[in-house]
């Protein structure tokens, strides 16, 4: 193994982590320790269902402050399993935000449920709790089943307030924390509530897509404090199959298993989990750098016509994205691309996507989300963004905004 480590160290050219003047909006950071960890698993007996999964889950649960974590193949699978574990079905009606990746809503559709959107709070571009309350008050009790708030861009949604509302109406919460591992908000007692810590939502989900804080290529995690949901998730992740002698209805011998639910194969591989483990060790450092970049953007955009108010400077922001609002968004986007700066738009409101239009959702239904979409732009934000590139991005934005 030491030989491999040396080989990798020698072959990881520093230039490899910094492609000249191609500046994406988000990017993974892979070093030789990450590569060595993956190679080690590739040389072992188990590429999947080995020991790295449980190790990654334990480390992630500790990092987030939740009791249980279940690793899955991606964030979308995490959302789907979360919905299944909460028994979402044709009679479910779940509230979420239009300003998110489609998967936050799709997970309800996979289970045959109905999605109801509620507009955003324009200050944070996250689900507006007042709009959710208005929906609940305007409908007979029992109309809605759950809420999926999204920690958009890394802004930690106040789940204490959502929990209170959800309890009043008997709803569950899935926190879509894909943008916010390590993020937290300060609750009414002055305590830090880390995104996905299992105290305020039944389930929370994360993604390990390369643009996210922790990169596994593809990968996802579900966290919870509920042992019943945890057991159900473990079963659902592997076809609904168990070999646990205590759970079997019969037992024919060592080979025997039972499929007790209609589950899926949403497993993460061991080499992805190995990468997750080494990535997680750098997570705090990466988060600190993201916050530093955000402060620098804010400092440089202060007093200019670049509106960065949605990248709210709150303690605990995880800054997956640094989102600005500009009137000439398309022109700026194109100019940035000409300069090899690949800014991105997050998000096209989900209800305006053709699939959702086909289900009868109307353009104009959520005007604040639609207005936000017209002007938002996510600037480069990742730990390995160099000072030189950061300055170049800022100069180019100020030149064309
Ligand atoms: C808010 C949000 N939810 C869910 C997902 C889905 O995650 P994945 O791409 O890992 O399936 C993403 C990823 O883009 C996301 O940003």
UniProtKB/TrEMBL annotation:
<dbReference type="InterPro" id="IPR015421">
    <property type="entry name" value="PyrdxlP-dep_Trfase_major"/>
</dbReference>
<comment type="similarity">
    <text>Belongs to the DegT/DnrJ/EryC1 family.</text>
</comment>
<dbReference type="Pfam" id="PF01041">
    <property type="entry name" value="DegT_DnrJ_EryC1"/>
</dbReference>
<keyword id="KW-0032">Aminotransferase</keyword>
<keyword id="KW-0808">Transferase</keyword>
<dbReference type="GO" id="GO:0008483">
    <property type="term" value="F:transaminase activity"/>
</dbReference>
<dbReference type="InterPro" id="IPR000653">
    <property type="entry name" value="DegT/StrS_aminotransferase"/>
</dbReference>
<dbReference type="InterPro" id="IPR015424">
    <property type="entry name" value="PyrdxlP-dep_Trfase"/>
</dbReference>
<dbReference type="InterPro" id="IPR015422">
    <property type="entry name" value="PyrdxlP-dep_Trfase_small"/>
</dbReference>
<protein>
    <submittedName>
        <fullName>UDP-4-amino-4, 6-dideoxy-N-acetyl-beta-L-altrosamine transaminase</fullName>
        <ecNumber>2.6.1.92</ecNumber>
    </submittedName>
</protein>
<keyword id="KW-0663">Pyridoxal phosphate</keyword>
<dbReference type="InterPro" id="IPR020026">
    <property type="entry name" value="PseC"/>
</dbReference>
């Amino acid at each position: 193994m030491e030989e491999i480590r040396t080989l990798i160290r020698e072959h990881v050219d520093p230039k490899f982590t910094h492609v000249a003047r191609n500046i994406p909006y988000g990017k993974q950071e892979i070093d030789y320790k990450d590569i060595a960890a993956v190679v080690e698993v590739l040389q072992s007996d188990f590429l999947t269902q080995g020991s790295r999964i449980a190790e990654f889950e334990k480390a992630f649960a500790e990092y987030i402050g939740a009791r249980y974590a279940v690793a899955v193949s991606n964030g979308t699978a995490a959302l789907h399993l979360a919905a299944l574990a909460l028994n979402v079905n044709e009679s479910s009606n779940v509230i979420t935000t239009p300003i998110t990746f489609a998967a936050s809503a799709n997970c309800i559709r996979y289970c045959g449920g109905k999605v109801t959107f509620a507009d955003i709070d324009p200050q944070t571009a996250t689900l507006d709790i007042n709009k959710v309350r208005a929906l609940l008050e305007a409908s007979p009790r029992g109309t809605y089943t759950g809420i999926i708030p999204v920690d958009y861009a890394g802004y930690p949604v106040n789940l204490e307030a959502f929990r209170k509302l959800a309890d009043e109406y008997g709803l569950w919460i899935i926190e879509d924390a894909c943008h916010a591992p390590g993020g937290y908000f300060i609750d009414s007692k002055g305590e830090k509530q880390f995104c996905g810590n299992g105290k305020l939502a039944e389930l929370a989900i994360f993604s390990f897509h390369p643009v996210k804080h922790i990169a596994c290529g593809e990968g996802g995690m579900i966290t919870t404090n509920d042992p019943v949901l945890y057991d159900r998730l473990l079963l659902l992740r592997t076809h609904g199959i168990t070999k646990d002698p205590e759970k079997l209805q019969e037992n024919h011998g060592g080979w025997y298993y039972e499929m007790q639910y209609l589950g899926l194969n949403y497993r993460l591989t061991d080499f992805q989990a190995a990468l997750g483990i080494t990535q997680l060790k750098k997570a705090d450092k990466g988060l600190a750098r993201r916050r530093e970049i955000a402060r620098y953007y804010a400092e440089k955009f202060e007093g200019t016509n670049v509106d960065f108010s949605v990248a709210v400077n709150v303690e605990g922001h995880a800054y997956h994205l640094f989102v600005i609002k500009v009137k000439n968004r398309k022109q700026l986007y194109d100019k940035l691309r000409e300069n090899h700066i690949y800014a991105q738009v997050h998000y096209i409101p989900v209800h305006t996507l053709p699939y959702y239009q086909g289900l009868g959702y109307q353009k104009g239904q959520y005007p604040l989300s639609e207005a936000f979409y017209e002007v938002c732009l996510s600037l480069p934000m990742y730990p390995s963004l160099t000072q030189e590139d950061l300055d170049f991005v800022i100069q180019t934005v100020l030149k064309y905004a």
